Amino acid sequence: MAGGSPLALNLGAGLLIGLGLSGVSFAVVLGGGGRLVAPEKRMTALALASAGGSLGQFLMIPTTQGLLASFGWQQALIALAFFVTPMFFLGSMLRGKAVAAADGSSPFRALKEAFGHSGYLLLTLGFFVCGFHVVFIATHLPAYLVDLGFEASLGATALTIIGLFNIFGTYACGTDRW
């Protein structure tokens, strides 16, 4: 497989990034964080954790743009690797006690039950649509703006503003404080 082939791009940018995100993104944080707080405070805690993801977008996009502009993509990737290294250590704080099912159920039985429930399927579809459009915008908006003749920093600014408003919107929706 050549380094510049479509297969290499799909495996690297698609599969590997997808696996990486599944290991450090919302599923891990929300699952672990949800177990750490009392049920009556869980909604607020999960809203804060979700808003924290948008805070990361708000802070890291201009940081990344600055690194790219100042040092080039190779050094920017190395610097970003150092920024994310603490995730490995902070993730260990989210470990909870394993919970054994009292009815002797297995993960396969739980998945079969989940896929048989329309609420689970609709929630999964909603997460897919949300994730798809967010990644679509984050991937294509900056390049589209450059194609139109704008500076690359405009795409970074647009994504940063989206992240800023997501902080407040996510918290407000997650805590049901309207």
From the structure above, extract its key features.
8 helices, mainly alpha, 0% strand, 178 residues
> Termini, distance in Å?
53 Å
> Uncertain segments of ≥5 residues (pLDDT<50)?
none
| Average pLDDT number | 82
Shape: globular
Number of distinct helices: 8
Largest sheet, described in full?
A: none
Helix proportion range: over 70%
Number of strands: 0
Tell me the strand percentage band. Answer: under 5%
Structural class: mainly alpha
Query: What is the C-alpha radius of gyration, as a whole number of Å?
Result: 19 Å
Walk me through the structure:
With 178 residues, this protein is mostly helical. It is built from eight helices and no strands. It has helices at residues 6-24, 26-36, 39-71, 73-84, 86-90, 107-115, 118-147, 152-175. α3 (39-71) packs antiparallel against α4 (73-84), α3 runs antiparallel to α8 and α7 (118-147) runs antiparallel to α8.
